[in-house]
UniProtKB/TrEMBL annotation:
PROSITE patterns xrefs: FE_B12_PBP, TAT
InterPro entries xref list: ABC_Transporter_SBP, ABC_transptr_periplasmic_BD, TAT_signal
Domain of life: Bacteria
Organism: Paracidovorax wautersii
SUPFAM superfamilies: Helical backbone' metal receptor (SSF53807)
Protein name: Vitamin B12-binding protein
Domain named Fe/B12 periplasmic-binding: residues: 66-362
Coiled coil start-end: none
Length: 407
């Protein structure tokens, strides 16, 4: 893992004003550089050791206290780093409420003031209102890599240029695109700009220890990697969406499996025809779902979903998707998990569950439920309560044959 240097706290936090915008713009024109590059010349970005964890624009003199969150569903991750983060937000995107309603409700129950936060977007790049962000006078805007786009595009971003002209820095972090490479650097960078490094370090240590435990056991045993098909958002779209490289692929590989979607898709996600899935006959079938109850035929799993609902829902959506003839289903090698693991350090729990599904004897002593209880008690501001992974009802899991991949 790459360590992330501390973002230097060099430049005073100033209020947004027309004069600031004009002065920054003149400075950019004088140098002939894009605005964010011109600002950065006087205060070089400090977070540069990781391509997906970036610091853009001027630097802070003190820990950030007025923060805009460009993707609301990052809130649980930020709260691991800073237990007071809810009181420091002055604006956010509303994607937590639209994508994970039960999780959002739990946050509102514990922090009612979040309901009054100005909404600056919907968690997608094209929806962010830079005018609303400027009006909130933040001293920091936090972006996810997913919303910020490719680092090569930052110099062309009119949003980043406008924020730089106003003297507002941007921190880009990543828990989604390459989570196993970028979670630790992202947590460290967040802790540094929030002034909470001592608070964040115990979680980072615990997270690292758990990941290392899985990886080292796989490396020693060298088991054959079962071929896994991950069926994303099963029941909510045409069959069959699946992750390519990154995100869930990282988790499957770390746990000692081979993600078939990575062989077939060049993008982070894409669609694979049902006929192809049936022809491939994966060793293990895994579905993802959420707690969103809108519509019919959904796989409900996540906060406030009970175990029986999740298990029977998995069985029903597999049949609805016409994948119940898969050999993996007949063997009981069909499972499901909460899609919300894709953008939070809590994914360490999912990796343990995946390891037990794919290598049950090797990881017989691993207890993901105990891990989740520990994380809830020690680190999570709002505990994850509900069902977050499941098997088919009454399934007697038979060992999955493997096709020769080495983990």
């Amino acid at each position: 893992m790459t360590s992330t240097p501390t973002p230097a706290l060099a430049e005073p936090i100033r209020t947004v004003s027309r004069r600031r915008l004009l002065v920054a713009g003149l400075g950019a024109a004088a140098t002939g550089l894009p605005a964010w590059q011109a600002v950065a010349q006087t205060a070089p970005p400090a977070v540069t050791s990781n391509s997906h964890v970036q610091w853009l624009g001027p630097q802070l003199k003190a820990p950030a206290r007025r923060i805009v969150l460009a993707q609301g569903r990052m809130l649980p991750a930020l709260a691991i780093v800073d237990p007071a983060i809810a009181s420091k937000l002055v604006g956010w995107a509303n994607d937590l409420s639209t994508m994970y309603a039960a999780e959002n409700a739990a946050w509102l129950a514990q922090f009612p003031a979040l309901a009054q936060l100005p909404v600056v977007g919907r968690g997608r790049p094209e929806t962010l209102s830079v005018e609303q962000v400027l009006a909130l006078n933040p001293d920091l805007v936090i972006y996810s890599r997913q919303v910020a786009g490719s680092p090569s595009s930052y110099a062309r971003s009119t949003t980043f240029q406008t924020l730089a002209k106003a003297g507002i820095p941007v921190l880009v972090v990543d828990f989604f695109m390459q989570p196993l490479d970028n979670t630790q650097p992202s947590l460290r960078a967040l802790a540094q700009v929030l002034g909470t490094t001592a608070h964040a370090q115990p979680f980072i240590d615990d997270y690292t220890r758990r990941l290392d435990g899985v990886r080292e056991r796989i490396a020693r045993a060298k088991p054959k990697a079962p071929q896994v098909f991950v069926h994303a958002h099963v029941g909510s779209a045409d069959c069959c969406f699946s992750p390519g490289k990154g995100t869930f692929d990282d988790f499957v590989r770390h746990a000692g499996g081979h993600n078939l979607g990575a062989d077939l898709l060049s993008a982070p996600t894409g669609q694979i025809a049902r006929e192809m899935v049936l022809r491939l006959q994966p060793d293990i079938y895994i579905a993802t779902g959420t707690d969103t109850r809108q519509g019919t035929g959904k796989f409900l799993i996540g906060p406030n979903i009970d175990a029986a609902t999740a298990a029977t829902g998995l069985r029903d959506v597999i049949k609805l998707s016409q994948l119940d003839t898969l050999d993996a289903v007949a063997r009981g090698q069909a499972h499901g998990f909460w899609h919300g693991f894709n953008d939070t350090p809590a994914h360490v729990v999912l990796i343990e569950a995946l390891a037990k599904w794919m290598h049950p004897q090797l990881f017989a002593d691993l207890d993901p439920a105990a891990t989740l209880r520990t994380l809830n008690q020690r680190f999570f501001q709002v505990p994850l309560q509900g069902t977050f992974w499941t098997d088919l009802p009454g399934a007697k899991v038979a060992a999955a044959p493997t096709h020769g991949h080495r983990a």
